[in-house]
Amino acid sequence: MPRVEAELHRLAARWLADEGHTSEAAEQAAQAGDGTGTAGVVAVPSVPSVPPAVVEPLSDREREVLRQAAQLQSNADIAAELHISVNTVKSHLKSVHRKLCVNRRRDAVRPARQLMLV
Questions:
Q1: What CATH number should be reported for the domain holding residue 69?
Q2: Is residue 94 part of a domain?
Q3: pLDDT tens, position by position, for the chain (118 residues)?
Q4: pTM of the entire structure?
Q5: Residue span of the signal peptide, if any (predicted)?
Q6: Which residue range(s) make up the domain with 9?
Q7: Which of 106, 78, 109, 107 is nearest to 91 (CA)?
Q8: 20 to 30 A Cα–Cα from 56, which one of 22, 43, 76, 98?
């Protein structure tokens, strides 16, 4: 059984190196397999943060509503600022949530900042 485990660690180290992950993670995998590292412990490589995809582009008005929401303004304040009704603000935010595949206002702000929409 130890030989199988060592072979798995060797293959994991090779895969990590081939995938361009940190040499530290590959080295830890190799050491774990040859007995010089901590047995059975392999570092999980960090995955670069990739901005989420937008299902459909945001309209100019949706972007403006999202900008105001990102500044922590209430729906009433956004409506007054943009000279639209509160229900229209809610409608725009609902559309933004759908297009960004999120369910909450704060969850919409993070990807919008990553995608440089606000």
A1: 1.10.10.10
A2: yes
A3: 566 667 766 777 776 666 666 556 556 655 655 555 554 454 555 544 544 555 688 899 999 999 999 999 999 999 999 999 999 999 999 999 998 889 999 888 888 788 777 7
A4: 0.54
A5: none
A6: 2-34
A7: 78
A8: 76
